[in-house]
Amino acid sequence: DASDIEKGTYPHFMLKEIDEQPFVMRKIIQEYQDEHDDIKLDEDIRKAMKECDRVYIIAAGTSYHAGLIGKEFLEKIAEVPTEVHVASEFSYNFPLLSEKPLFVFISQSGETADLRSVLVETNKLGHPALTITNVPGSTLSRESNYTMHLHAGPEIAVASTKAYTAQMAVLAILAVDTARAKGLTLDFDPMKELGIVSSAMEALCDQKELFDQIARDYLSTTRNCFFIGRGLDYYVGLEGALKLKEISYIQAEGFAGGELKHGTIALIEDGTPVIALATQEHVNSSIRSNVQEVITRGANDCIISLEGLDREGDAFVIPKVHSLLTPLVSVLPLQLISYYAALHRDCDVDKPRNLAKSVTVE
Ligand code: AGP
């Protein structure tokens, strides 16, 4: 049937979509670059970004996790104050809005009902909205003022992979464009850096056996798993935990390294898998002390680090990329580990129980 054709030689859409990420990066570079190597962006979006005094990112699930990284980009690169909100909570926890808010809806499908109800509300209030989506003709795209396209190609697997990395890439481009529009001096060429990301992703996709082995060693029988990280790595850990939960049904939690001692460390026992990310130089020694703390309590540690920050015994070292863009690469091992864990546990990778690809009910 049609779905077999689309899957090609891949056993699952998820694996195919993981593998497509290097190409999606190149496609994004191509689509967002003009003939003078400048960023190609709707002038109205540029103006809206420049004029707003605060960005409110609204999203759910994996797209929310991309939003957390997006906040770092917008604040660190473009100096735009940014808040990130879970769509379903927004209406009850409605924040005090700034004078000139810009709402940014991040949604792979563009159909998520929780986001739509926020958009209906912000439209009523007359606030401008930008939707970042993989489906430009979608409801959210049609009902907001501006759209940025992810260019990731159709994502079929319920577990989002390539849309997440595409969201972060597009947010990085948006942040750099805004910085330039504001006249900030910037030593960051997003297209060059995304090219490096693409190559790093490719190198990772060529090492699947290793992640299969990690999944087998750490996750084939465990009941739970922890992901820890600091800074950007913490947010990637949240995404790693979500991925693992949704397709392998292992209870997984992402934690900020420093929060462990405030409670969660009580759960660590002999053999508990702890996957730690160590890609951020300024927190490298502190995340490594957190790993020592869990090892002392018997945890089975698996450290994924960045070239240059690696230490003996790390399970995997990702190729060097710009420190702000590490999430785009460090998430791949987590996607692959989740994929193989689900396989080893005989789970339906592309269609996990109880989940729908796009959640069109509130
Ligand atoms: C991701 O793996 C999930 N299936 C889910 O969290 C998803 O990201 C969420 O429902 C948001 O969907 P959207 O991006 O289409 O709005």
From TrEMBL:
Intracellular or extracellular location(s): Cytoplasm
A single Gene Ontology CC term: cytosol
Residues in SIS domain copies: 45-184, 214-352
Catalytic activity: D-fructose 6-phosphate + L-glutamine = D-glucosamine 6-phosphate + L-glutamate
Subunit structure: Homodimer.
Role according to the record: Catalyzes the first step in hexosamine metabolism, converting fructose-6P into glucosamine-6P using glutamine as a nitrogen source.
Protein name: Glutamine--fructose-6-phosphate aminotransferase [isomerizing]
EC number: 2.6.1.16
Domain of life according to the entry: Bacteria
Residues at the active site: K357 (for fru-6p isomerization activity)
Keywords, comma-separated and alphabetical: Aminotransferase, Cytoplasm, Glutamine amidotransferase, Repeat, Transferase
Gene Ontology molecular function: carbohydrate derivative binding; glutamine-fructose-6-phosphate transaminase (isomerizing) activity
GO biological process: carbohydrate metabolic process; fructose 6-phosphate metabolic process; protein N-linked glycosylation; UDP-N-acetylglucosamine metabolic process
Transmembrane segments: none
Full-protein residues shown: 239 to 600 of 600
